[in-house]
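Run folding on both entries below.
>entry_1
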Amino acid sequence: MNSKTFKKIRKKTNAILFEWLQTLVSEEEFKKITTSNIDAYLPKLEYVVNHKTYMLGMFSKRWTYQTLKKMIKDGHDINKINYEYFNTHYKRYIYGGS
């Protein structure tokens, strides 16, 4: 992948997290959220502990970025990926799952 693809992935990461937050908060709270202040609304813990093993927490910025990168390497079109598409396909990429 080249730098242009990575730039698209970073932008798509913010868009997916923005839409994900929309499903969690009420309408009046969602009006306060923008893509520039999205970090304030994301979970503070980036890692979770599972049987003495640290793993990236789901829907953290880094986890979403890495999952998108894996999806694009597998042949998914970055222009077709939105929250609904991501939500139906990300389960194949959780912690090395098949």
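>entry_2
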Amino acid sequence: MNFNVKVRKIINNDKPLKAICSVTMDDSFTVYDVKVIKTEKGSFIGMPFATYKDAEGNEKRRDVFHPITSEARRAMEAAGLAAYEAYSILSVASFLPA
């Protein structure tokens, strides 16, 4: 599976959420609002989700999209993290003196 990742927004703060991306798979499907998250334990991507209330009124979240296999998740995660790192390096380089 081929992934094309576009970093839509970089978040520069001390919180775990670092970027929002869109991921296009095999030039056929696009998933928006994929999150790049960095914690002390490592980096990963978070899937877009919808919030709803269950029968008891408790707020719940459900992924709108998620990879079915662990292999697909690892491939998507690798593509998302690589795009974020590349974008971060380019962003820093643009502020360096020539």
